[in-house]
Amino acid sequence: MPTFRYSAFNAGGGEVSGTVDAATLNDARVQLKQKGLYAKEVAQTDEAGAKGIFAARVSVPDLSLATRRLATLLGSSVPVYEAVSTLWDQESPGELKRVLGRVRDRLAEGLGLAQSLAAEPAVFSDSYVGMVSAGEASGALEVVLERLAEFQESQAEVRSRVTTALAYPALMVLVGGAVMLFLLAFVVPKIVAVFQESKATLPFITIVLIKLSTAVRKGWWLILLLGAGLFVGGKKLAVKEELLQKRDRLLLKLPLVGALWQRLILSRFAKVLGLLLASGVPIIKAMEITGEAVVNREYRFFIDGAMEALIKGGSLSAALKESPLFPPLLTHMTAVGEKSGELDRMLIKAGEAFEKEFNASVTRSMALLEPLLVLTMGLCVGFVVLAVLLPIFQLNQLVK
Q1: For 60-153, CATH number?
Q2: pTM, two decimal places
Q3: Is there a contact between 51 and 16 (Cβ–Cβ < 8 Å)?
Q4: pLDDT single digits (tens) 350-375
Q5: Closest C-alpha among 291, 329, 333 to residue 310
């Protein structure tokens, strides 16, 4: 919903300003009138119209730092409005400062912190808002925010580890692919022309190289068209829930990648659910929010079924035990947590264990992937060299 910034006069004649969320400009004016404000100027904010891939975003490290600062201020008995205002003053110009400004304005209008954050779904997830709401209800908001900051920092660390691990292999694939395309498009044709003039019988490997070179030179437009078609087709198919679920099921079955992906999902599931329960969110609501946080639809489908079992009086550990998606370690720790009354702590502990397994697996996989990429590039270059040298050797034999 668009956000409108307004300047208005209150019943006492004083000038006030702030923001209001409304579907249209007229709806914004009606809302101001209902609050007893006489609009002087109402305009849609620039950030309300900033959508799409070019919209500014708030990074996870920046959000976690702001969350920790807010927790520190609230822990020092600073009122919520003053704490958010202080964060806004301290933040450098950017998307986060604009978001904090809108949150501050909503607080000034009398909304709670969770409600004010919920109006910014692009920045604050359902799990974030749910934990803040539970913290407000329990009176332990600063403790909840500290947990949120720690969780976001751990997620940022995992993302950074994956990005760093994939940077070198991605660069090798990009550079190697570019070199091969250059050889096939510009270098190989000039060399092959000499062989074709000799009208000698060419080795099979050289014929394959010539065919590849011809395909790249004459069919480059077809390759681009095919790539664009696959991209557009993928975008259209991405809206079909049935196909997305099949894709997510396939990802879990892929060798090596599936096991890594599953550990990451299990870590997120256990940590988010544990943090929500530790913050005082009821288990049914916590499961619902966790389902939104888990990106794989196979797990989402199971969580929906587990929620129904919990509503009927079943236990979480029994529900987890029925699905092969959850390993015995998690089901056992969940059962122990339910019996001891420390389900939140056991889930967080299990999430940390899966995160450590994921990090270790990524390190091992990248250590194996790098030499395999070097070997693959070496084989590709060797194929080109061999395809060029074999006819030269044959010509030398004919000359002799």
Answers
A1: 1.20.81.30
A2: 0.68
A3: no
A4: 999 998 998 888 888 888 888 888 88
A5: 291
